[in-house]
Amino acid sequence: ALEIARHLILEEQIDSLILCVKDDTLLFQWELEIEKWLSKFSIDNFLIRKQFNKFKELDAFLLSPENSILILRQHHNPDLERLLNEFATENEAQRCLMIHDEVHNMGARQKTELPRNHKGFGYVLGLSATSNRGEFDEEGNAYILEEIGETIFTYTLEDAIRDGDALCEFN
Asked: Which parts of the chain fold into alpha helices (H)?
């Protein structure tokens, strides 16, 4: 996901990034990964903004999204709804990549009631090991397909076994 973001930045297609994450553990994990990524590729003109726990930087992002990365909680979050209502309808959203980690969670009933404004973003990417919510949640699957889009890349367990270096040993 960050490699896609890097290419879009280098090609001057985006100047902001939004990362929606499920829970605190993943929020902090992504923050560390983004810090390492920015340093590794000398992307020093981007500022990380956070909207979770004690961090309240959504307003700063909305005021000046250029060269900003916003990390926010995906679940039970009125800030995500506000972002979809306010930012997704602005021209700046066309130059933004929105990433949903664990995108299968976006199909939950409370998420399908979110504003349907993902199409306002220039780029939307969903990450999941299980992007399809199964045959018993067609409404959730339809929401993900309509709002986030179709699967663009699949890496199966068989692929990982064949590649040999993608899995850790299990005893």
From this structure: 2-10, 24-40, 58-63, 78-86, 109-112, 138-147, 157-163
